[in-house]
Amino acid sequence: MNCVECDRPAHGTCRFCGRGLCKDHFNSANFIVTISNNQSKNEEGPEVLVVKNVLKCSHCEPLGELISLNKKD
Ligand SMILES: [Zn+2]
Ligand SMILES: [Zn+2]
C-alpha cells in the first residue's frame, strides 16, 4: 500500500477511513473506542474510552459539532 498523498510506501493506515499514509502525511487524532452506558454504575452518564494520537489522514475531518454524551434531562 502507498501513501494516498505522495504515493510513497505507507507507514500506516488512517484509523478512520483506511487510507494508506506515510510518516510525512499522517496526522493524529483521538478516537473513541467504546462507550459504556452502565447507568447503575455511573450516574454522570455514559463513559467513553478514548485512544489518543491514532493515525488520521488529511481527508477525514470531524463533521459538525461535538456531541455531549451527558444528557441534561
Ligand atoms: Zn505521504
Ligand atoms: Zn482518513
Gap from first CA to last CA: 48 Å
Radius of gyration: 16 Å
- Reading the helices and strands in chain order gives EEEE
Could you give a short account of the major beta sheet? Answer: 2 strands, antiparallel
Give the overall shape: elongated
Task: Write structural notes for this entry.
The chain is mainly beta and 73 residues long. The protein has a domain at 12-56. Helix content is 0%, strand content 33%. It has no helices and four strands. Strands 1-2 form a two-stranded antiparallel ribbon. Strands 3-4 form a two-stranded antiparallel ribbon. β1 and β2 form a beta hairpin. The radius of gyration is 16 Å and the shape is elongated. The model has no long low-confidence stretch (mean pLDDT 81). One zinc ion binds at residues 3, 5-6, 8, 22, 24-25.
Considering the chains and any ligands shown, give keywords for the structure.
single chain, mainly beta, two-stranded antiparallel sheet, 4 strands, 0% helix, binds zinc ion
